[in-house]
What does this fold into?
Amino acid sequence: MSGDDNTARFERIVQPHLGDAYALARWITGDRADAEDVVQEACLRAFRAIGGFAGGNTRAWILTIVRNTAYTWLARNRNAVVTAVDDLTAAENSNAAQAATFAGGRYDANPEAELIAKADAAKLEAAITALPPQFRDTFVLRDVQGLDYREIAAVTEVPVGTVMSRLARARQRLIAAIAADDR
Amino acid sequence: MTGPTTDTHDHDDRTVLLVHAYVDGELDPANAIALEQRMASEPALAAERARVEALRRALRERLPRETEPPGLRAKVQRAVGLTRPRTQPTWMTMAASLALAIFASSTGTWYAMQPPAGGGVPDAVIAGHLRALMAPQPADVASSDRHTVKPWFSGRIPLAPRVVDLVQDGFPLVGGRVDVVNRTPVPSLVYSRRQHLISLTAVPNVSADSPTSQTVQGYNMIAWTAEGMTYWAVSDLNLEELQLFARLFRAAPS
It folds into this structure.
């Protein structure tokens, strides 16, 4: 029976990634209870679509569904209109940070690196939460969840080049925010 | 990029991306060696590398890992209607699955003997109720929470039924299942009253104007039409209480 096949496929393909699914939903919604709702809804979508899953990277597949579900959920439940961050504008904004980068000191005497190394969990979490959504997704997928660039490109549905620039911008913003906090 | 950006800036911008990719282990060996040489001679690039590495180290060492909440797996399994027990089988669950297997083989025969489409909706509804009473559990999704039961249906049938909470009135929700009436999958809700179970099956596009009640094979049935569906409540509960259930269900806000 195809129902049994789908059940077995769901257990094999989706269930191992529930932890990752929940973590991503938590970062996007910023709330644990909301994240559980999003994961349930995403799993239902995944279950319906599982017959058509052509194989490949199962984690990227489920995280793509979770991310899309989370944004739909936010739009529906919080009237949050997620505006696409214009990456070029963001790049312009980061020029200041960029300038600081190139004025930076030597590798072995880098005051910002020392400040960052001392940042505590609350500060890190607040800085990540404050990132614009597209930057935050890319950053969380890479530096918190450990996906590689190709996986992140698949999940966020953008080219690898965009992943690279978003990731660099996200990190530079975090570094600037953490360093500014300590001044 | 807009404004007076120069080629030099673009070049530097791209190099910064390469530094990040280097830290992430995403560069091929040739590019990695070339970049290492540049970082050795350009302090700004080396500084960027140090900051990214410091950030990654801080995250790894101090950002708490988000772990999956304990009940999530069970909730997801309920949401997709996957309630297979994950524990070691006991003699009771083995006996139950044996009974289910025997029953499933006899159900096949029963469906083959079902009357043709169009006839016998009450019979089909009663059959669904009987089958549920004989099964190890009367509902495929067992939950007293209507917010769990309703979404479970949306994955299986085109139209999820109205699910209302009647626990205050002494009719707690037991769960839901999918029955087959006129060869069409239809939603059935299961409520309970003391030790009696009530199946409430919603069949689309079948007319029954005002609530009608009848007794079929010793079971009481009440039917009414609402929202383009005919609702059939069936139970071995006495007719008065079943009528009370029907009134409460129809009056309840969804």
Summary: The longest helix of chain B spans residues 91-112.
